[in-house]
Automatic annotation (TrEMBL):
Annotated segments matching region Disordered: 1-32, 155-175
Matches recorded under Pfam families: HECT, WD40_RLD
One GO MF term attached to the UniProt entry: ubiquitin protein ligase activity
Keywords attached to this entry: Repeat, Transferase, Ubl conjugation pathway
Lineage: Eukaryota, Metazoa, Chordata, Craniata, Vertebrata
PROSITE patterns membership: HECT, RCC1_2, RCC1_3
Alphabetical GO biological process terms: protein ubiquitination; ubiquitin-dependent protein catabolic process
HECT domain residues: 702-1032
Residues at the active site: 1001
Intervals holding RCC repeats: 148-200, 201-252, 253-304, 305-359
The protein's name in its UniProt record: HECT domain-containing protein
Listed Basic and acidic residues bias regions: 1-10
Keyword Acyltransferase tagged: no
GO cellular component, one term: cytoplasm
Length: 1032
């Protein structure tokens, strides 16, 4: 071993016959290192002001007491053996304390007071906890357990115990809870600062920071662990601390230092402090494998086995000989006769330095720093094969302990299943988890197959979850949530475990206990996974929820609600995800039993009527994301039926009492519209206005007459109930086609005349827009498809969703694409040369989008403001009054809470239906009656399909309307579009004179037995071209 610095070569018992220090050694203060012939290898060494301790490779520990002589020099005594039943693996000395700390190979922490007899005293608080590392500062200690937990004790003058509060100190070890989830692999201490290092290179510091020794960019002490963000993704693998400076080593051999530079100990060729980590540039090009800090100096060992030093050299601790450039990185001058040995490890403490040697063949590739990660990293995937193999009861007892230690420790789990390829897990950040979930899945599949192992795993995780922190100090502490989602997925893949929701409920509760920042990180990690994995993770919560909702008595407890909230959060994250990665919204929908929906609706109705009710619906109105379109429409239509019955009942009793006990007539319980076919729209507006005029102005819900069953009569033709479906369908078809025509003058149209919008010149005094809203509400309420060629922006606004540039592109592609080019394509100088300002022309009127700044020019800096203002004016500002009237009319009929179940696109499709083009499906679904019901098909039927196939697309759509009464088909009824064909009965059997007839209520086509294809084609196309259907 080589030693240099204060009393560097004294105190060690040398190999007999060596003559003490080699003959090449000189005075310790004016030459470099000295070779000590010890005759044994030193495994660990630590030096403080009052003591030096070391461990032989055989596990024997020794302490050398250091005292002050009469002339003020520090003088070492002789080494003394510390008797211990267990082998010792590590030692630690305080810089300002007489106590030496030892760590046994069994993980026990032992203390020796060097001022008294060298008797070992175990640290009682850690007796039952296995410790893997101990680090000592001036007067405090830090311990890392094999379970990844950190304990501190000693003086706490500057927050070096990391307990989050200022206290004098702690005589017994205190757990730092805020670090409990982090996968730590090293702890370090020096002076009054402490550090923890995670498996993926995260550095966390706390304690004294008056010289910037925590690397946080300031000089404020920290009483709780704080991440050193400057070192993120620097692949840190080792930390060493001096009295008030710190050094870190990276995986690629770079060294960063920070803190006090008073003695040049930072190696930056200056004596200034560094508040943030700074690369030691003079070591660039040399791969450093090990670092060590003394009180005010720093040592580094390179892969070429050369030792360099910098900092305070007053006691010869730099080993530079007579050279004196303390702030410059210079090699330590070691004896030249070392050809048979190479430097193995370096140690620094107080004012002295050491380098251990080994024969060239004994020097392994792995360094001390590299070994920290490899030794400490708890590789769960490597242990599972042992757990799941055959074993006896004694072995099983040990396995149970291992399972418990692993799965009840977030730190252990967060250290597992890392992406090792190219050390990618060192890139862990709020956007990347550093995990390989595919490996985790394979490991969990092995666990789940073994019932005994799985039972222990589940019990350990359930014990762990309540103790997890709301906001771990570092993002690595959040890996466990992705791993648990993967574990739940594997559990649910096994049929016998699918019905258990205990673990899923507990995980959901833990997720929802996290802070908003932590949830943001988990969301970003999850949304970066492959889409197939995202879907699988969503299905975990859907499966658990399905189990709970399928029970006879669905629990309305926090367990169910937590599962719902987790799904809602995942949905929100998915909504923010970029399009290629985003899951379809339908992937969040559950197959919900109709009986459950009925009960949920009943709860909603009761709660809406009695505001004080404790019970509330589980899903309805709170979690519509879980409802598919069929469930939403079922609930809406069911409520409409209930409302009609309720309003009829109310109307019955109102009429009964108003007419002095006279029974009301059936028509008194209906909302009737008696119209003339020649003026459907005018009559409709007139009768709706009469209803509004009779309403109670003090009651916003009045008139409730709209919510009664709708009855429509044309030209005083009071039809029976069976014909009402056809009349209502006719009514909605005709009134909306007339209203949406240019002749009505109610709307403006885009350049292609395909889409309408509210005119900017209309005012809310025009009652037609309120009545327009009522008519749209009546169509939805009574389940009729209408002709409503409005952009999606209309339905967004109804649901309080802000219209976007995409809506402008839909309504006016020319304007929308121009705005998009300004926003995304045009360079700033191009925009400047356009000489545009914030004045636009909309609906034939010039509008200043920023009236407070007239003629404000368009620039590259305000282009987004311009585009947003353009879209806002078109869809909001210019039409606010008339739209509010439309909205008021719409929700006069429909319940706003239930309408909001729908997404904008869904609401549009429910009201407008969808285009039908699957004519082969129509042919496949067609049935035949009477003489047409033959196999093979009747000649007239064959003739009919030949004629049909030759129709144009528009004629086929006209045929669909002719037979079914639909121009577009119900969004949920596309698969049910059917037609029945039968012979049209005629008295004179002159079939060729007659047109086809239809019964649209039942989609029946009465087709005469035409004699030729040409006659059939003529009669059918003529019938389709008529403005009115031929109906009975």
């Amino acid at each position: 071993m080589f030693s240099w610095g204060e009393e560097g070569h004294r105190g060690f018992r040398l190999k007999q016959g060596s003559g003490g220090v080699n003959s090449d050694s000189g005075p310790p203060t004016d030459v470099g290192g000295h070779r000590l012939n010890l005759g044994y290898h030193i495994a660990d060494l630590s030096a403080g002001r009052s003591a030096l301790a070391f461990v032989k490779s055989n596990g024997n520990a020794f302490v050398i007491r250091t005292s002050e002589s009469k002339d003020g020099r520090r003088v070492r005594g002789k080494q003394k053996f510390v008797k211990c039943k267990e082998k010792i693996q590590a030692v630690g000395c305080h810089d300002d304390d007489d106590v030496v700390t030892l760590l046994s190979e069994g993980g026990k922490v032992l203390c020796v007071d060097t001022t008294r007899a060298y008797n070992l005293k175990p640290l009682e608080a850690l007796c039952n906890i296995q410790v893997s590392q101990v680090a000592c500062g001036s007067q405090h200690s830090v311990a890392l357990t094999k379970g990844g937990q950190v304990y501190t004790w000693g003086r706490d003058s500057r927050g070096q115990l990391g307990q989050g509060r200022s206290e004098p100190g702690a005589g017994s070890p205190q757990h730092i809870r805020s670090l409990s989830a982090l996968p730590l692999v090293q702890v370090a201490a020096g002076g009054e600062q402490s550090f923890g290092l995670s498996v993926s290179g995260g550095v966390f510091g706390w304690g004294g920071n008056d010289r910037g020794q925590l690397g946080l960019g300031d000089t404020t002490d920290r009483h709780a662990p704080t991440p050193v963000h400057c070192l993120n993704m620097k692949t840190t693998i080792h930390i060493s601390c001096g009295k008030d400076h710190t050094a870190i080593l990276t995986k690629n051999g770079a060294v960063f230092t920070f803190g006090s530079g008073q003695y040049g100990q930072l190696g930056h060729n200056s004596f200034g402090d560094e508040l943030r980590p700074r690369l030691v540039a003079e070591l660039w090009g040399a791969k450093v494998t090990e670092i060590a800090c003394g009180r005010h100096h720093t040592l580094v060992l390179t892969d070429s086995k050369r030792v360099y030093s910098f900092g305070c050299g007053e006691q010869g601790q730099l080993g530079h000989g007579e050279e004196s450039h303390p702030s410059v990185v210079l090699p330590v001058q070691l004896p030249q006769d070392t050809d048979d040995a190479q430097i193995r490890n370096i140690f620094a403490g107080g004012n002295c330095s050491f380098a251990t040697c080994a024969s060239i063949e004994d020097v392994g590739e792995e360094t001390n720093a590299d070994g920290v990660n490899n030794k400490t990293q708890h590789r769960l995937d490597d242990m599972i094969d042992k757990w799941t193999s055959e074993c006896d009861s004694k072995q099983w007892k040990k396995i149970k302990q291992e399972i418990h230690m692993t799965f009840s420790s977030a730190s252990c789990l967060n250290t597992s299943f890392l992406e090792q390829r190219k050390d990618k897990h060192f890139q862990t950040s709020p956007k990347y988890s550093g995990l390989t979930l595919s490996v985790a899945r394979l490991a969990f599949e092995k666990l789940v197959k073994n019932d005994n192992v799985f039972a222990e795993v589940e019990a350990a995780v359930l014990l762990l979850l309540p103790s997890l922190e709301k906001k771990p100090v570092g993002v690595e502490g959040l890996r466990i949530y992705l791993l648990l989602n993967e574990l739940l997925h594997v559990i649910q893949s096994h049929e016998q475990r699918r019905t258990s929701t205990t673990l899923a409920e507990a995980v959901a509760a833990a997720v929802l206990n996290l802070s908003a920042d932590s949830l943001q990180v988990i969301g970003d990690w999850w949304s970066s996974l492959p889409p197939s994995t995202m879907v699988e993770h969503v299905n975990v919560w859907k499966q658990a929820l399905s189990v709970m909702l399928s029970s006879e008595s669905v629990p309305h407890n926090s367990g169910v609600r937590n599962l719902l909230l987790v799904l809602q959060y995942m949905y929100n994250v998915n909504s923010r995800t970029a399009e290629p990665q985003r899951m379809p919204e339908t992937d969040f929908c559950l197959l919900i039993d109709k009986n459950f929906l009925i009960m949920d609706l009943q709860l909603w109705i009761l709660r809406s009527q009695l505001k004080y009710m404790d019970a509330e619906p589980l899903i309805l109105c709170s979690f519509p994301i879980l409802m598919d379109l069929g469930s939403k429409k079922f609930v809406f239509d069911l409520n409409a039926r209930y409302t009609k019955v309720k309003e009829m009942n109310c109307m019955y009793w109102e009429t009964f009492w108003a007419w002095q006990w006279a029974l009301p007539l059936p028509q008194d319980l209906l909302f009737e519209l008696d119209l003339r076919r020649a003026s459907v729209l005018g009559d409709t507006f007139e009768q709706l206005a009469a209803v509004s005029a009779a309403a109670d102005p003090a009651d916003p819900a009045d008139p409730n007459e709209y919510k009664l069953p709708l009855a429509v009569y044309f030209d005083e033709n009071f039809t029976n109930v069976d014909d009402q479906y056809l009349y209502r369908k006719d009514f909605f078809h005709e009134v909306f086609h007339e209203m949406m025509s240019a002749e009505s003058g109610m709307f403006m149209f885009n350049d292609s005349k395909t889409l309408a919008w509210f005119p900017s010149k209309a005012t809310e005094e025009d009652q037609r827009y309120f009545q327009f809203g009522v008519l749209c509400g009546l169509a939805l309420y009574n389940q009729y498809i209408i002709h409503l060629p409005f952009p999606l922006a209309l339905f967004k606004k109804l649901l309080s969703v802000k219209p976007s540039l995409g809506d402008m592109i839909e309504f006016s592609p020319c304007v929308g694409e121009s705005l998009l080019n300004i926003l995304e394509v045009c360079e700033d100088d191009v925009i400047k040369n356009l000489y545009m300002d914030f004045v636009i022309n909309w609906d034939g009127t010039d509008v200043d989008l920023d009236p407070k700044n007239p003629e404000k020019p368009l620039t590259g800096e305000n282009k987004k403001e311009f585009v947003d203002a353009y879209v806002t004016h078109a869809f909001n500002t210019s039409v606010e009054g008339v739209f509010q009237e439309f909205k008021r009319g719409f929700f006069q009929v429909c319940d706003q809470d239930l309408v909001k179940l729908f997404r904008p696109k869904e609401l549009q499709e429910v009201l407008l239906g969808k285009d039908f083009h699957d004519w082969a499906k129509l042919k496949q679904n067609t049935g035949y009656e009477g003489v047409y019901n033959t196999t093979p098909p009747h000649p007239t039927i064959q003739m009919f399909w030949e004629v049909f196939d030759e129709l144009t697309e528009d004629q086929k759509k006209a045929f669909l309307w002719f037979v079914t009464g639909f121009e577009r088909v119900p969004i949920l009824g596309m698969e049910t579009i059917k037609m029945t064909v039968k012979v049209k009965g005629v008295g004179d059997l002159s079939y060729d004179k007659y047109y086809p007839q239809t019964h649209t209520c039942y989609s029946i086509l009465e087709l005469p037995l035409y004699s030729t294809k040409e006659i059939m084609q003529s009669k059918l196309t003529e019938a389709l071209s008529n403005n009115r259907r031929i109906y009975k």
